[in-house]
Fold each of these.
Amino acid sequence: MSEAMLDRLPYARFLGLRTVMQDDALTVIMPFADRLIGNPMLPALHGGSTAALLEMTAIAQVALSYPRLRLPRPINVTVAYLRSGRPVDVHARATISRAGRRVAHVMAEAWQDEPGQPIASLTAHFLLAD
Amino acid sequence: MSDTFLDQIMPQLASGAAHTHALGFVYEGYEGDRVRIRVPWREDLVGDPDTGVLSGGLVTTALDHVGGLAIWLALGTFRPIATLDLRVDYMRASVRGLDLVTEARCYRLTRTVGFVRAWAFEERIDDPIAAAQSVYMITDEAARAPNLEARS
C-alpha cells in the first residue's frame, strides 16, 4: 500500500520518485532528470531536490509503519549535505528512531552509487496525530 | 560593477538553473541585506493532495535557495557556495492557492562560512509557514579545482 503512497503526492511525482520495498524497509529512488540540476556549471543536483527526496522517504516510511494515520506532518527537518549530488540517480532510506504517541523521530540518508558514501542525511520530527 | 551583479546576475542566480526554473521561482529583489524569492502556487508542487498544502520539500528547497542568494547579496559578488546544513521548522500548513514567498538574510559572513536565517510565508513575514537556519560554505576559487578532482 505504502509502496504506491508517494505516487499520490503531486510533488513526489514532480520529482519522479519511485518506491521499492525490501523486507520492511522502503528505498525511494529519484531518477536523474535535467530539471533536478541546481548548479549547471559542475553540474550538480539542487540540494533542495535531495532534501525533498529525504523528507518524502521519511514520510513514506512513517506512513508504512503507522498505516492508521493520515499523512505524517513534519515539525522540523535538518539536512546535512555531505557530498555534491552528481547528475545520476539518488537513493534514500529512512529509519524511525523513536515513535511516541504524538511525535516520531526519523533519520534518513541519501546516496548515489555507494550506500556507504551518503550525499546527504536528514534528521526530522513528524507529528503523528493532530 | 556591483550593480551589474545585483541587477543582472542575481535574477539569474535566483531562477536560472534547471531546477529553480522548473519550480517557477521568481526573483523579487532585495532591500538592505534581505532578499526574496516568490514561488507561484501550482498543483504539482503540492505535498498533500487532500489539502492543497505545498510540499515541505518545496518549502525547504526555496529556503535553501533564497539563503544562497542572501550569501551572494552579502558578498556583493558571485562566489561558488555550497549548503553545509539547513534546519527548517514548520510552523503551520500553507494555504491552498496562495504563492509562497521566501526571504533570507545573511547575518554573519566570514571568509569561508555564511550564516543565514530565512522565512517562508504567503503575505506577512510575521505569520510564517516555516523558518530556516542554515550555513553555507564559500568556496575559495583557487582551491576549487583540486577539490572537484578529489571528488570524482
Amino acid sequence: MTAAVVARPALDRPVRAPLGRLLVSELRWILRRPRTIIAIVLLSLVPVLIGVGTVIAGNANAGPGGNGPGSLFTILIGNGFVLPVLSLTLLLAMLLPLLGAMSAADALAGESNHGTLRGLLIAPVSRARLLGVKAFGVGTVVFIATAAVALVGLVTGVILVGTDGLITLTGNTLSFGDALARIGLSVVWVTFQVWAVAAIALAVSAFTEHPLVVMAATLAGALVFAILTVIPQLDWMQPYLLTTGWTSLTDVLRDPMPWDGLIDSTLKAACYLLIGLSVAYARLSTKDG
Amino acid sequence: MTTTSLVEPGVGAAVAAPALAARTRGLRKTYGSTVAVDQVDLDVPDGAVLGMLGPNGSGKTTTIRMLLGLVQPTAGEVELLGHPMPGGAQITLPHVGALVEGPGFHPFLSGRENLRRIASAEPLMATSAIASSVDEALSRVGLSDAADRRYRGYSLGMKQRLGLASVLLLPRRLVVLDEPTNGLDPAGTREIRRVIAELHAAGTTVLVSSHLLAEIEATCTHVAVLHKGSVVAQGELAELLEAGAPALIVSTPDVELSLDSLRDNGIAARSTEDGLFVELIGTSAPKVVKVLVESGAEVHEVRRRRTGLEELFAQLTEGETQ
C-alpha cells in the first residue's frame, strides 16, 4: 500500500484492500448496530436472572443429583462455577442460535436490502473475501455474546455463592484454575456450535434480501430438529442432527471429563459450517449485485 | 449540415475510435422471458461525459450493472478501462467510482461512519488517508455539518449527496452515476452538475444516466439514447442536437403571402404563431429565402431549427412505440 493516495495509480494488476482493515471495519459496523448490543446485553442478563432466581427460590426444591440441566439447578446452590455453564446450556438451546441467525441475516440479506452490499462489491471486495469477512463477523459476535454470558455468570455465581472451587457432577472438587479452564472451554465449544448454525443462516442469507426470511428459516430449522429428536421412529437421524450433541456441554462439569460427546459434536458442527459456507459461496458467487 | 449524426448501433465502431473507457458489444441480458437489454453496443470515450438517456425501464441501470460486473450478461462482451468484465473487476473497479440504483447506506450509522466503511473497502485507499478523504468528500458535497448525524434522519437530497461523496473518496478514472439527480431540488441538481464538471475538468470519464433530457443537455459531451433495452442513437451531443430533418423557422408578419408563394413553388410550409415553419425537403435554405424575398413579404428573420435533444428523444421513443 502506498503512503498517500496517488492521482492515477497504475491500471495493470488486481489491488485489494488490506484484509485486516476489512475485518476491523466489519466489526465496527456490527458493534455499532444497536440491536447487536441490546441482544448481547439481554443475553448476559440471563445468568443473573437464573442465579438470583435459583438462590432466592432457595434450597426448598433441592433434590438428589441426576443428569442434565435439571440437576445443574440443584448443584448450583452452593456452587457458583456451575452458573456460567448452566446459563450457556440453556441459551444454546434457542437464544444463542437466534443471535447467530440475526447476525447472519444482517450480514448478507440486510446489507443487500439496504443496497450496501452493492457498494462493497463495487469497491471491489471479491465475493469469496466478502463471505470470509461476514463469517468472521458473525463468529465474533457469537463469541462476544458467549463470553459475556460466561463472564457475567461467573461473576454472579462468585458473588452469590463464593469461590470454593467447582464441585463436579461426579462429586469431587476442582481448583479455581481448573474451573476457569473448563468455563473457557465451554465458551469456545458453544461459540463453535452457534457459528455452525450461523453458517447455515448465512447460506439462507445469501439467497434473500429479507433478513426476516433468514430468521424464520433458522427458527423453523431449530424447531424441526427439536421435533425430529423426540420422534422414536426417527432416532436413526439423530447422529446427523446438530442439536442432539448439545447436551454434552454438561460433560465439562464431570471429572474426569468425558471428551467423546464434545468432540463428536464439534466434528458435526464443522460439517454444518462447511456445508453452510459452501452453499453461501455458491450463491454469492453467482448473485446479481 | 452533417449528413447524419444519428449513428446507428454498430456503425460507430467502424470509425477509428479514440481510447474507450468502457465498451460493450452485443450486450444482452434476459430475466426469464423478459429481455432487459438487447444488442447494446455502447462506447464511452475516454475523458467524455456520456449521458445515458432513456425512459424508465429502458435498460440503463441493467447496462450499468453489467459494465460494473455486478450482473453477468446473458450474451455479449463488456470491456471496462480496457479489461474484460466481470473477470477484470479486481483490476478495474478500484479505479471506478459508482453510484448505482440510489444511495445504499446503513440508517443507524452517521454519514461519516457510512463513508468510513466504504473507504475501508476501497483497495486504492491508504489506511492513513481514510479520515481525511472522508472529510474532504463530505465537504465537497456540502455535508460537513450533517456528517455526524445518523443517515436515518437525512433528507432525500442529503442521502443522494452522501452517495455522491462515496464516489468522490478517491480520484477515479471513471465515475458512473445512475440517476444522480433523483430527489434533488434545483440547488442540489446544480451541485451535481458542478461536481460532474469538476470531474470532467480533472480528466475523469463520467457516465451519467438520466431520464431527464435537460440534465443530459446541461452536463454531457456525449449521449447514448436507450429505448426498450437497445441503443437507438449515440454520439457527440452537439452532433445529435443538430440531427433530424432540417427545417427553417421564418419570422414574418405576411404569413398568407409568403405561404402562398412558397406553395406555388412546391415548398412545404405551415404557419406558426409568428411566422412560418418550412421543412427543407427537396429544397434548400437559399431557395426558400429567394422565394420569400421575391414574393415581397417582409421577413424579419430566417433561422435553422436546432433539433433539441428533447425533440430527438421524443422522435426516437415515439417512433419505437408505434
Amino acid sequence: MVKPMRLIGRISYTKQTNYNSKNFSFMKTESQENILQANMARRSFLRYAGVGVASVGLLATAACHKDHQAPTPPANGVDLGAKNDFAILNYAYALEQLEAAFYLQVAATPYSGITSAETALLTDIRDHEVLHREFFKAALGSKAIQDLTPDFSSIDFSNRAKVLAAAKAFEDTGVTAYDGAGYLIADANYLLIAGKIVSVEARHAALISNLILPGSFAASDVSDPATSLNKSASIPEVLKIANMFLKTKVSAVNYGYTAS
Amino acid sequence: MNLLNIIEEIENVDPEVYGRLSQRRDVIKNITSFGSKVAIAALPFAVGTMFKKAYAQSTTAPSVIDVLNYALTLEYLESAFYNAGKAKGTALIPADAASKYFNQVTTDENNHVTFLTAVIKQLGGTPVTSPKFDLTGGGGNNNGPFADVLTNYSTFLAVAQVFEDTGVRAYKGQAGFLLNNQVVLTAALSIHAVEARHASAIRQIRGLTPWITSTATLGNDTKISLVDGNYDGEQNVTQGGVDVTTLKSATGSTTSVAVATAAFDEALSSDQVLKLLSGSFIVK
C-alpha cells in the first residue's frame, strides 16, 4: 500500500509548479524512481574513467574529502558561478577547452603507427573541438571563465591504445555531460546550440569507439541495453573526471560540487 | 487508499479542484472501486494523469505528448526499415556488417519504439499507431527513387544514413519544446545521441566523414541529390549570432567552412521533417 503521506507530499510539491506542457514534476518524480531509469548513467559511469586513463581510487578519496570541506572553490581553480545559463555554458566551455587541448596534443605528438586515415580523422576532431572552444569563448565574452591549464601527465601520447582510450573517455564524458545538463538550460536558443554540439560529440565518440573495437559505436558501456538511451551524467560526476586532467580545477559549488 | 484525502489536501490550496475534476468523477470512482485490481505502483500515475488533464493549458506549442508521438513516428520508420533489412538476411546485408553494425542499430530502434510508447502511456497520452511506409520513397507505389533499397546493399546504406542524419536533426528540433523537463528532455537528448552514434557508424561504412562536412552552398555531402532537402541548412556557419568561420582555428586566424559546418549539426522542425517524409517514405 502506498503511504498516504508520501503521496500528499508529492501532490503538494507538484501544486507549486502547476501542470503545463513543460513541467511534469509529478511525472518526473515517479519516472525517476520507476520508469525512465534516470539513474542509469550513474551506476556504470565511472567505468569510463577506468578505461586506461584514471584511478577510481582517486575519485573515492576526493569524495571523502569533500564531505569535510566547506563549499568554497579551491585557490588553484575556478567556479562556474551562480546557477544560470552562463554557468552551464561555462561548464561546456571548460569541457571543450579540455578536449581541444587533448587533441592538439594528439596532433602535435602522434602515436606510433598512426595511419593516414586516423591522422585525418583525429585532425578533424581537433579542429571541431578548437572551434567549439573558440565559439564558447566568443559567445560568453566577459562572462567566460579563464583559460584552463590541462594536466595530461597520466596519458602516454606515444601509445595508440592509451590515446584512443583517453579520447573515448573524453568524448563519452562530453556526451553524457551535455545530455545530463540540457534540462538546466533555461533559454531555448542556448539549448539548441548545445544540441548542435552534442550530436557532433556523439559522432566523434562513435568513431573513436569503432577505432578501438569495430562495432562498439553504441555498446552497452555508453548506452542502456534495455532502452537504447545514451547515458547521461550530472555536473559533479563529470567534473570529478574532468578535474583529473586539469591543473586548473573546476568547481560548481552551486550545483553541489567543489573540487578537492 | 487515501486518494480522497489527497484531493482534500489539494482543495486546501486550490478550492476549485472539484470543479477542475468534475468531468473526471467517473475516473475517481473507477480508481477507488478497482482497489486491489489496480497495481498499486501504477496508481500514482493514474492520479497524475487525471490532474495533469485537469490543469492542462491550451497552447500553440506542441505538448510533450505531441513531441513524443512525433518522435515515435520517426522511430517507427527507422524500426520498420531496419527490421525489413534484417529480414532479408545476407541476401542484403553482409554477415560481418550485420553482426558489427546492423544488429545493434536494429535493436536500438526497436527499443526506442518500445521506450517511447511506454513513456507516452505513463504520461497519460495515447501512442500514435504506425503509419504505412514505403521504404523505396515512392509514396505507396513501392517503386520510388530507392526501388532497390531492400535488394541492393549500397542503396540500403544510403537510405540508412539519410534516416539517421535526419533523425538527429529531428530530435534536435524538438529540444526547445521540452525545456527544463528533466526526465523527458534528458531521455530525448539521450536518444538523439544514440541516433548520432548510428549516423556516425553508417557514414563510416559508406566511406564518408562521420560528421556532415558541407560546402558554403550545399549542406548535403552524400552525393545523392535526391536528399538535398534532408541536409539543407547544414551549410549554416552562424551560431548564436557568431559567424564561426571568423574564429581562429588550430592552424590559423580563421576557420574553414568544412570545419565550421562539421562542428555543428543543424536542426529541422517537425513540419520540415514531415514534408520530407510524407508522400515518399510515409504513405499519405
Amino acid sequence: MQPILRLQDVSKVYPNGTAAVQEANLEVGEGELISFVGPSGCGKSTIFRMAAGLSAPTAGKIEVLGTTPEEARRSNGISFVFQEATLMPWSSVRDNVALPLKLRQAPRKVQDEEAERALELVGLQDYAKALPRQLSGGMRMRVSIARALIANPRILLMDEPFGALDEITRQTLQEELLSIWRRNPGMTVLFVTHNAFEAVYLSNRILVMTPRPGRISREIAVDVPYPRGDRFRTGPEFGRFVGLVNESLKH
Amino acid sequence: MNPVFSNLLSRIGPPLIAFVLFVGAWQAVVAIAELPTYLLPKPSDIVAAAADNWTHLLGSVSTTLIETILGFLLSVIGGVLGAILLASSKIVERSIYPYAIVLQTIPIVAVAPIIVIWFGAGIRSIVTIAFLIGFCPMLSNTLIGLNSTDKNLNNLFTLYNATKWQTMWRLRIPAALPYIVGGLKISCSLCVIGAIVGEYVAGVGGGQGGLGYAITYAAMRIQTPYLFACGLMASILGIAFYQIVNGLSRKWLGSWHESEMRGDHD
C-alpha cells in the first residue's frame, strides 16, 4: 500500500545557515496517529511546514498523498492545527470554523451546515455566534480543531496544539481527539508534542528527534489497542513506554 | 441621586469646573488690568464678536467643514487604496513607498502655492491641500497594518488555497483595521489644519470664505475678538471630527480589539 506521507533524506537549512532538519526518513501509513517528540528547535515544526507545502526542503524528497505537498494542499487533503488557536478575532466562532469552505466558495448553506457539524464534534454547538475572545483557551483550541476537521482532511497536522493548556483541559482534548480520529478511520494524524505522557497516550507510533539539526533518532511503536482510557494512563505499561521515550530523549 | 446622573457628573464635573474657573480668571484679569481688546479680548468680547458676526462665522465654518470632509474622504480612499496596492506586491512597495515618504516630509506650506497655480484659487486647491496633508498618515498606517498580519493566520490562508484577493479582503484588511483607525484619527485632525492652511493660501475663490480666510481677514483688520472666535470654532471643528472618528473606531473595533474594549473581558 502506498504511504500517505513519505520523507526521503529530507534536510532543511534556513537562509541564515541554521540546519533545522538533517536527512529525515519516514513513511506514514493511512489512519496512523504518530507523535513527534523532541527538544525545542529540533525541527519538528519544520517537518510539518514542509509536509504542508508551506516551506520547501533544501534536500531530499517529500511525497504527500502520492504527490507533492503543494499538490496535496491544493486538493484540500491537508489540515493544520497550530500551537496557538490562530482564530480571526473579528469573526464569530461559526465563521472561523467555516473558513476553509468559505475560501473554497462553498454555498453559504453548506458552510453553515458543515460548521454546525464540526462544532458538534468538539462540543461547541452552543457557541457558534460567540467571538473568540469570549471563549477560554481550551474552547478556542476546540474551535481551531473544528476548523481543521471541516475541510475533511486526509492528513491532520497538529503542531503542539495542547501545549499552552492546563492539564485537565489537555486530557479532555486528548480524549476528544482520539474519539474524532477513531470515527474517521481514513484520517492520519501527525502530532508534535514536548510531552512524553501525551505522546504515549495518543499515538500508535512515536518518533523521537535529536536536537538541532533534527534527525529521527528512534521509533517507538505503542502497540496498545484503542480505546485506551484511564486504565492505560495509570497502568505499568504506560510508565514503561514513557520511560522508553524519556530515555531516548536523553540520548 | 440617580446613578447615571451621578456618574455623568463625576465624569464631566471636574473639567467643567476647571473651565469655568479658567474663563472667569481670564475675564477678571483682563478687566482689572484694563488690557486693550485688540491685544487680549475678554471671553465676553469673544462671545459678543461671535454673536455679532454669527451668519458670517457659521458660513465660514460650513465652508471649512465641506472642504475638510472632501479632503478627508479623498485622503482615506487614496491612502487605503494606495496601501492595498503597495501591500499586494513587494516590488511595487519598494519602488513607490520611498516617494510617499518624501511627500510626507515636504512642508505643505512649501507646495501650497504650486497647488494654487495648478488648480487655481478656491475650493479645488484647498481640498487638494487638505487631501495631501491627510493622505500620508492614512497610507503609512494602513500599509503597516496590512503588513502586520499574524504569520500563522497567513499560513492558514495559504494552506486552504486562498487567492491573493481572498487573503487581502478576508484577512489582511480586517487585521489592519486597528491601524487604519489609527490613521483616521491622525488624518481627521490634520485635514482640518490642511483646509485652514489651504484657505490662507488659496483664499475664497468665488464662494464664501472658510475659517482660514476669516482668520486672515480679521487679523488684517485687527479684529482680535473675532479672530479668537474663529480660532475657537476651528478647534471645535477639529474636536468634533475626532469624536466622530472615535465613535466609528468603537463601532468597528469595540467587540474584538483591545484598544476599544472596555469592562470585564478576559
